[in-house]
Specification:
The structure is a single chain. This protein has 2 helices and 4 strands. It has one domain: Ribulose bisphosphate carboxylase, small subunit (Ribulose 1,5 Bisphosphate Carboxylase/Oxygenase, 2-Layer Sandwich), CATH 3.30.190. Helix 1 (14-26) packs across helix 2. It has helices spanning 14-26, 62-75; strands at residues 30-36, 47-49, 80-87, 92-100.
């Protein structure tokens, strides 16, 4: 299933996911992690994993986001997991990408 631009590429490595998280933080966006078991194109809302990490915005603390991604993936191995970047000024989501897919979907 193709979900967004990166989904047309091979699955991301840990280093590629880390680089994308760095980009979100460098742009001073608020990172958040979401997951869903059935990503349909008409499904706009995914379940949020914990709260958005507003305290990390602009900090460059990539490890904290990667740790939460790993925790979400471990808790929901059958789910698609994505990273979202919210712009607190425009008050909207400006970046999102699927970081992990279930092994059956890869």
């Amino acid at each position: 299933m193709k979900l967004e631009t990166f989904s047309y590429l091979p699955p991301m490595t840990e280093e590629q996911v880390r680089k994308q998280v760095e980009y979100v933080l460098r742009r001073n966006l608020v990172p958040a992690i979401e997951f869903t078991a059935s990503p349909r194109l008409d499904l706009v809302y995914w379940t949020m994993w914990d709260l958005p990490m507003a305290d990390l915005r602009g900090s460059g603390d990539v490890e904290a986001v990667m740790k939460e991604l790993a925790a979400c993936r471990a808790a929901h191995p059958e789910a698609y997991v994505r990273v979202v970047g919210y712009d607190p000024v425009r008050q909207c989501q400006v970046v999102s990408f699927v970081a992990y897919r279930p092994s059956a979907a890869a």
